[in-house]
Amino acid sequence: xxxxxxxxxxxxxxxxxxxxxxxxxxxxxxxxxxxxxxxxxxxxxxxxxxxxxxxxxxxxxxxxxxxxxxxxxxxxxxxxxxxxxxxxxxxxxxxxxxxxxxxxxxxxxxxxxxxxxxxxxxxxxxxxxxxxxxxxxxxxxxxxxxxxxxxxxxxxxxxxxxxxxxxxxxxxxxxxxxxxxxxxxxxxxxxxxxxxxxxxxxxxxxxxxxxxxxxxxxxxxxxxxxxxxxxxxxxxxxxxxxxxxxxxxxxxxxxxxxxxxxxxxxxxxxxxxxxxxxxxxxxxxxxxxxxxxxxxxxxxxxxxxxxxxxxxxxxxxxxxxxxxxxxxxxxxxxxxxxxxxxxxxxxxxxxxxxxxxxxxxxxxxxxxxxxxxxxxxxxxxxxxxxxxxxxxxxxxxxxxxxxxxxxxxxxxxxxxxxxxxxxxxxxxxxxxxxxxxxxxxxxxxxxxxxxxxxxxxxxxxxxxxxxxxxxxxxxxxxxxxxxxxxxxxxxxxxx
Amino acid sequence: xxxxxxxxxxxxxxxxxxxxxxxxxxxxxxxxxxxxxxxxxxxxxxxxxxxxxxxxxxxxxxxxxxxxxxxxxxxxxxxxxxxxxxxxxxxxxxxxxxxxxxxxxxxxxxxxxxxxxxxxxxxxxxxxxxxxxxxxxxxxxxxxxxxxxxxxxxxxxxxxxxxxxxxxxxxxxxxxxxxxxxxxxxxxxxxxxxxxxxxxxxxxxxxxxxxxxxxxxxxxxxxxxxxxxxxxxxxxxxxxxxxxxxxxxxxxxxxxxxxxxxxxxxxxxxxxxxxxxxxxxxxxxxxxxxxxxxxxxxxxxxxxxxxxxxxxxxxxxxxxxxxxxxxxxxxxxxxxxxxxxxxxxxxxxxxxxxxxxxxxxxxxxxxxxxxxxxxxxxxxxxxxxxxxxxxxxxxxxxxxxxxxxxxxxxxxxxxxxxxxxxxxxxxxxxxxxxxxxxxxxxxxxxxxxxxxxxxxxxxxxxxxxxxxxxxxxxxxxxxxxxxxxxxxxxxxxxxxxxxxxxxxxxxxxxxxxxxxxxxxxxxxxxxxxxxxxxxxxxxxxxxxxxxxxxxxxxxxxxxxxxxxxxxxxxxxxxxxxxxxxxxxxxxxxxxxxxxxxxxxxxxxxxxxxxxxxxxxxxxxxxxxxxxxxxxxxxxxxxxxxxxxxxxxxxxxxxxxxxxxxxxxxxxxxxxxxxxxxxxxxxxxxxxxxxxxxxxxxxxxxxxxxxxxxxxxxxxxxxxxxxxxxxxxxxxxxxxxxxxxxxxxxxxxxxxxxxxxxxxxxxxxxxxxxxxxxxxxxxxxxxxxxxxxxxxxxxxxxxxxxxxxxxxxxxxxxxxxxxxxxxxxxxxxxxxxxxxxxxxxxxxxxxxxxxxxxxxxxxxxxxxxxxxxxxxxxxxxxxxxxxxxxxxxxxxxxxxxxxxxxxxxxxxxxxxxxxxxxxxxxxxxxxxxxxxxxxxxxxxxxxxxxxxxxxxxxxxxxxxxxxxxxxxxxxxxxxxxxxxxxxxxxxxxxxxxxxxxxxxxxxxxxxxxxxxxxxxxxxxxxxxxxxxxxxxxxxxxxxxxxxxxxxxxxxxxxxxxxxxxxxxxxxxxxxxxxxxxxxxxxxxxxxxxxxxxxxxxxxxxxxxxxxxxxxxxxxxxxxxxxxxxxxxxxxxxxxxxxxxx
Lengths: 495, 1140
Fold this sequence. Notes:
Chain A is of the alpha+beta class. Helices cover 44% and strands 6% of the residues of chain A. Chain A is built from 18 helices and nine strands. In chain A, helix 10 runs antiparallel to helix 13 (381-396) and helix 13 (381-396) runs antiparallel to helix 15. The termini of chain A are far apart. The model of chain A has no long low-confidence stretch (mean pLDDT 92). Chain B is mainly β. In chain B, 12% of the residues lie in helices and 43% in strands. In chain B, a hairpin with an 8-residue loop joins strand 42 and strand 43. In chain B, helix 7 packs across helix 16. Chain B is globular. The two termini of chain B are 41 Å apart. Residues 1-13, 15-31 and 111-118 of chain B have low confidence and may be disordered. At the A-B interface, helix 1, strand 1, helix 2, helix 4 and helix 5 of A face strand 28, helix 12, strand 29, strand 30 and strand 31 of B.
């Protein structure tokens, strides 16, 4: 009996001591693999990480191949597919909808630029506010702020280009409050002014391409900001402003690379005189190039023996392809025939293919999947030369300088040069239109070019589209935006 | 698939069984038996005793003279115990016996007894069970006297008693019966089995009550009723077994989980049911790690409940309403599943073996085009596309002679010459096998002071998709030991280890396709392997590996889990006890993957290896005080109060490398790879801390009125500072009307009538993360050649975020009539969930897309019916018995209110107070056959396209106009149904005849289901045309210019395809009745078993699972997930159960 009582007492002591002494942690949450809200924006490294994140819009902010990327989410791709540049062999109905300008607010790929960029613009405002008080090198800080402005200018431009004026948030206070009131769509003047302001403030501080250290390759530069401004002025048909910017660009020391094809190779990484803004890619990073996978046909056999992922989608329609001069060197990356198994040459047209293969980019020899490390070219000097030529023609007619500029591009392509006085203003404009197609196909300029020239809607109608409407020069806004603003933000006309 | 039934397997199973039986019989010769069989006439008592000694191994002591005085006797013993034998041998003789430690002592009977004996009559009789079969081993004793006997093998007994004595008959599992002797010396007594489930014990969480006294909505399932021979976890066997418990098996793969839902739970943040095994919460676990290859998880579905062997489970109790679940407070929002494992009982060690062998085949898998059909359909669809592209009628008005002529992909000659190739789907499927062995030893010796149950389980499952295999080794030890009269300690240890080969089922398409889609993607014109053993690749889509080459991939997962639980209980004084529990639960899962160079993406990466591991630990401490007091006339009080504290951690680690010089090392030498940048990663979730206090009191009066009240206060670390604690009360009552004397008198046919009423609240804290703000590196970017982390605000805090609260009203009736031949229950519930935890979308321009928010209120109303009937009861017991159980449940979930912030972004076509899980779709209106003008709102529709109705439009402010607007937009969507089953039911019939038992079990849903299998087949151009992918053979019946009356729409990309795929066109009647299980068993009778001395019982069974399904649904299976699916299997099982 004694023994039993003893056991019981011991047990009680053990039990109660566990109860009383067990060191219970408070119900506080501790995080181990993320920054808690009060541990970020403390150092120069934090500022750098915050700025880096804002670049994510360039590749679609998490959308596979979006932004300047190579899939149906990319605005450069949509520029090709809503125009005469490209059609697709895949069966997704969206490809045909792009080509027919069969736009609606239920077409998700038209809405995602808005969904991706609007929050980034808000976050840029917040970041600029939060980086300000950080104790760090002043020059570096102003460089970061300038990069943020350049990015905001660029994203605002993409939005303006696709949707017209949109209610971007530039006030940090409002941007960081989830309960802020909706704002109505701004005027065209305000939107253009805001983009101008950001670019101009940024380019005053940012280094030029030449000055940019190679480790920073891919960051916004003064050159890129100028190019952005020039695109904006062309869009607004502010020819004199465009010409002025074009002349500034000419002073930055750019030149055309000797070979057109080389501009887009893996080996051209980071050391080009022609490229003004690129997206540095790696096969194992968010920034990667999917172009080849999308365009290469399944039966293509790489002469170097590289294994390339070949989804076989993108084609340039024969109608467009046939407009090239057969001697055009730019056709070297636009294939109507290609090597296949056993070295045999495959003729696409003879085999009922719907178009030629837009190779454009060179392969990354180390790639193990569809993700390639060949840099994506955003803007390059040839574009600037042609824009300047066009602006001059619009402003003063086809003066000699306009011919010189277009001929620089034609000379490299190995096609006959134009001679001064060969065309009147309208005739010269037509030649510019063609040249921009031959030179810049697949680089995301065609849509805005055709809209500027007024040929965007007509092209679709001529192609038999029953859907194209004049209002479709702008994309629709997401329905959610109209709902959440209670109608304060209005849908674009025609939708 | 088309392979015939493998007789070899059946033969093997039979052989195993025979060998096993023979083995058991033969070992019996070597051991002493507990049963005596002896039949002799005119023998002396000493020689009888010697024979008993020989058979039993016992020794006996006696006075030879005394024994000889008895003279010669006749004896006929047949498989009786030593005690029974001696009682029979000595009955009527002036001798008595006692047995101590295997020694029999025979002595003179007490003179007094002897004198009484003389005055007594010799009473004989037979004891039968309620089926009329003799019951051996029944204790028969005279009340208030030590005289007693037990029945022999024929249920017969004899003893001496006098008129007026009361005989007490008792036997485990049967109601004790008392008979007063009235002079009749020959008796026949029938004992009733305690089959009335009202006397069963129901576990209610921190306690147990008699079913009769249950006040809440609780459903119980005894695992003995389930066939788990092919189940790696208990969830798989539970479908349709209990009213209000919906079990959906969405994958047929070995070890797959099921989604189990208790009633309906209109909440976005549902954590699912809370699983508790013997008092320990087991929801936290490591989870299946993803591989670091392109295939990630590759569709592997693994149930967290695999670690518990279904054979170790005694019973499962589902707490359905909040009055019952409130004791588990904040985690009980999804209902509670209480799993009780088997415990030892009986003085003697009880050894049980059960084994089974199952053969499985896929019920239905994808029926793709054969070689010739493939070529013809491909030619056709390419021609249709050519006509569409060139605008040739009916796609336009262009004269076909003016365009490039169509060149068919295959000439007629090629089609004629093409040999028929093996079916790629068949190449990745096979017949499955499941093998299970369970062995357990249990007992409660030492007057039940020690109680033990030890078991081991081996399960080997070979799935019907090649490369899917699951092997599990499982052990469990349950031990309780009383230390003196007041203290009890115990431990429960479950150790489980599994190895699984993962078939790459795949979760996405195109270049990420797994085995199933790759089989689709493979042209029907090509051999699966060439003469050199290489794996050819679809020349028109070189990004999808050869389906057979997936078998070269090594991908397996090793998982282990150890759940330990120890307790000490102290009876402080009568009625009050204290208990401390501590449990430690550790699980890890490690996945190893290697893509060799013989596999497309292995070749591209030069061999790719990945190892990833997840681990989780959970520590739970609980201190509980129990108090019971019987006030006699004034009722009985049972109370419990306690404190619980739990810490859970989860973390993971992964590594990947590629470009290996050899395939030989697989993932075993990661450093051997030469990737530019091998991938590494790790994570650790915030430690989750729970702190809880709880109490409950149950008051029972006269077994007529029962009142129960409970309360729990829970604190959780993931909530905002001032909102960490929530309090959850529950109260319920029951009134057993049939116990009222006026009812007893007036309605004697009613055996039970009970009313239950309960109200309670529970909570939910599953917000996916926490209420705090975080920045994380989600947006890296490359500058130069380096990839830099990009840090963004990833989660926004909500300081006002509070618990989601469920308020539940439940009313129920339990009844039994006609001597319990019909019994059942009906429950009605009305549940509201307020402060709904939702990630609500923020303004599109806000940096974070959504925030955890209390976003509104929903309601669920429903009812459940449960019926048990005994349709046939054989008077003799040996005839046909038939009983049926049936359950049916229904619920409807709707929105009550939505928080303004949630309302802001709600699509306008959604009914603010409509169905919670409404299916909003476009309405379809048949196929446009190109025989008239296109509908004006669909100007670009292709002939053969599906017509969508224009019903609505938006005004300038974004509001619905209610009128057609001449185009299709999101405004045209309407609610066309409800997602999930509206009614679900289960139906079980059990028959017994002599030693045979048969059960037939069915269940079903009444539901609508999207048929993605079919809708995908009609992207014929996108698949077959563009890439040469194979499609379902129904694509032959699509609309084409030459088949205008086709059943299915065109296979060309239609400009309205997105609307069509989101329309009700592919929404089908998904109602089904599945015959889940037919089991036929044979229990060996005593006569057979008596011939040997080892087996106590033996049952053989054959079983077929999923023999048939009745449904109109045309897809793979109305229960499985859509499209990328592991097929459901039909299995044939042979099983053996033996007790020793």
